Here is the input.
Amino acid sequence: MSCCICLEDLNSPVSLLCGHVFCHDCLKRAVQAVQPYSTLHACPTCRSHYFITPLDMSTVPPHLRPHVTPSIRRIYLDLPSTSKTDNSPTPTSITPPSELSRTLSTEIARLRAEVEALKHNCSLWRRRAEVHSSATTGLLELSRTARDQIVQTCRERDTIQRNYHKLNHDFQRQQAILRAVVNTSMPQQRFGSPSNPPYSQPPVDQSTSLGQMSVSTPHRRSCPTEERGRKRLRSEDGDDYSAGVTYLNSRPTKISRRVETDSLDESSTSPSRLQVRTETS
Here is the structure.
């Protein structure tokens, strides 16, 4: 076995981390030839890097020391002797042909049995792989279909939400417009307008008798405030009339009543006024 640097037989062989073996002196000269000085060098054969700084084993924990090896370590090789006597085979080292053939046949049988076992295991694992592949393919297809369905459902949900928000916005805007219109028109209905007076009444014919006289009002919708006011006025008028009748009946005088109907003013919108005159004899 020769050194790759000096091309001679190995003298004090050392090995690097990559496994190449060199002479100790040859490797030392190769390291010293590198200028400037560096602790990182490359193997002369494969150019793999190694460090030449020694490692302090005291800094390594005890349980890790068996697994730590230096970058350059000395090895010991059992090299064969170069003498002719050593190269010539001895009679004791020759194996008989019968024993050799028996050994070879045993080894061949063992290898054949191992090959058959490997073939059986290979076919078994192939069938298992096919079953597993079919099951996995079905699951993958199912998961892919479920994922596509989820994505489609999410898109439909987003579309429905956008439509809902749009319709809700339009509805709120229409409600606001309607509320503003109602608030604007309510004062005109309550207090009346030039085109629609609230308390206007048609003129009453003077020839109509008191019992046949009726007052008609235009057909229009009145607000709750007007209804309450009318009820209160009717109740007050009824109370005043009852009080007057009671007072007149209590006096010992002869009472005659005369109802006169005043002429209605064309510009006036109030009902006809009734004047009651009492005369005492």
Remarks:
- The two ends are 171 Å apart (CA to CA).
